[in-house]
Design brief:
This protein has 277 residues and is an alpha/beta fold. It has a single domain, classed as Carbon-nitrogen hydrolase (Nitrilase/N-carbamoyl-D-aminoacid amidohydrolase, 4-Layer Sandwich), CATH 3.60.110. It has six helices and 16 strands. It has a six-stranded mixed β-sheet. Strands 8-9-10-11-14-15 form a six-stranded mixed β-sheet, covered by helices on one side. Helix 1 runs parallel beside helix 3.
Length: 277
């Protein structure tokens, strides 16, 4: 008797968000609908899905508490309408008068928020190109790693700069994650150097699928993001890749491949504690 494969149709939405929240919701929703028409039942959007503000002050002015955020209920309604699992890569959720959480949401096919994750690692850096980023000026860091349990598997959540901290993904994989999500707005400079390398490494290290929906192109505030949304298999192979323009990338995931790869490379079971002398 032939046993049916355990497969999942997925999609990453690539955006070029600006500072008009409801316009960004409209554009993202259109691509989510397009992805659902291809048969995708798990769809992910990038970091800063609804807002890429020109500066921290402008961001604070256009953000709300989670209870009052205008975008979240619309995305919940859309997930229920399309009967999909939807990961909104991140929304800026106001936590105080001066700070927001960079919060990712997993919404189930009934339109309920299944999991929330606040970005733990904040991007504070001055690049050789002269670009300066101080995310901690306006963002409150999260503290908890999150794995969302869904009918078809488990999703380990992260956001953008988290990608550079492999111990987070090790913890997610050991907690049972099948898919690691890395919604991002990588800069053009760092993206060219490290985006593919780091995402493929996180897949190989942990024997997980990786979905990395990205912002891409030049935004209204002049910032340039790298794009190249990726879907990667647990052996490190690139299953689908976007370019710079907004749109969708899709793939079929064979979830049985996770156990097969981990059987060939059982490194999750070989970690050891050690001392530095």
């Amino acid at each position: 008797m032939t046993v049916a494969k355990r497969t999942l149709q997925v999609a990453c939405v690539q955006l070029r968000s600006g500072d008009d929240v409801m316009e960004n919701v409209r554009v993202a929703s259109g691509f989510i609908r397009e992805a659902a028409k291809t048969g995708a039942t798990f769809i992910a959007t990038p970091e800063n899905t609804t807002l890429m503000a020109p500066d921290g002050g402008a961001k604070i002015e256009k953000t709300f508490s989670e209870a009052d955020d205008p975008a979240l209920p619309l995305f919940c309604k859309l997930a229920a309408e399309l009967k999909i699992t939807l990961m909104i890569g991140s929304l800026a959720i106001k936590t105080s008068a001066t700070k927001t959480a960079n919060r990712s949401f997993v919404i189930d096919a009934d339109g309920n928020v299944k999991a929330r994750y606040d970005k733990i690692h904040l991007f504070d850096v001055q690049l050789p190109s002269g670009e300066t980023y101080r995310e901690s000026n306006t963002v409150e860091a999260g503290h908890n790693a999150v794995v969302a349990s869904l009918p078809w598997g488990r999703v380990g959540m992260s956001v953008c700069y988290d990608l550079r901290f492999p111990h987070l993904y090790r913890a997610l994989a050991k907690a049972g994650a099948d898919i690691l999500t890395v919604p991002a707005a990588f800069t053009e400079t760092t993206g060219k150097a490290h985006w593919h390398l780091l995402l493929r490494a996180r897949a190989v290290e942990n024997g997980c699928f990786v979905m990395a929906p990205a912002q891409g192109g030049e935004h209204a505030n002049g910032r340039k993001t790298y794009g190249h949304s990726l879907i990667i298999g647990p052996w490190g192979d690139i299953l689908a890749e976007g370019g710079i323009e907004p749109g969708i990338v899709t793939a079929e995931l064979d979830l049985e491949e996770i156990a097969a790869v981990r059987g060939r490379l059982p490194s999750l079971h070989h970690d050891r504690d050690y001392d530095l002398s």
